[in-house]
Amino acid sequence: MSEIYYCPECKSKLEEISGCGAISYFCNTCKKLISRKKILPEEGMQEPKEMTKKEE
C-alpha cells in the first residue's frame, strides 16, 4: 500500500502515476504534475500544535 501525498498549493490528494519504473504525481484540482520534492506527506498536513508559555 502506498502513502497518501497532497498538493502543496491546494492541499488536495495527489494521484500517483507509475510506469516503466518512474513515479509521477498529478493534482486533479490544479491539473498539473507536482514534483516529488514539493509533495506533502500525510504527516505534513496536520496543523502544528501551539506552544504554550510556562506559568511562573
Question: How do the strands and helices of this protein lay out in sequence?
Answer:
Blueprint (H helix, E strand, L loop, with lengths): L4 E2 L8 E5 L2 E6 L4 E3 L5 E2 L15
Antiparallel strand pairs: 1-5, 2-3, 3-4
Could you explain how this protein is built, in words?
There is one protein chain. The protein has 56 residues and is mostly beta strands. It has strands spanning 5-6, 15-19, 22-27, 32-34, 40-41. A three-stranded antiparallel beta sheet has the order 2-3-4, with no helix packed on it. Strands 1-5 form a two-stranded antiparallel ribbon.
- Low-confidence segments, given as residue ranges, are none
Count of strand segments:
5
Mean pLDDT: 83
Q: What's the helical proportion of residues?
A: under 10%
Q: What is the quaternary state of this protein?
A: single chain
Total DSSP helices: 0
Distance between the termini: 48 Å
Order of helix and strand elements from N to C terminus: EEEEE
Looking at the structure, what is the overall shape? Answer: globular
Largest sheet: 3 strands, antiparallel
Strand content: 25-35%
Radius of gyration, in Å, reads: 16 Å
Strand order of the largest sheet: 2-3-4
Class by helix and strand content? mainly beta
Summarize the structure.
This protein has 56 residues and is an all-beta fold.
List keywords for this structure.
single chain, 56 residues, mainly beta, 3-stranded antiparallel β-sheet, 5 strands, globular
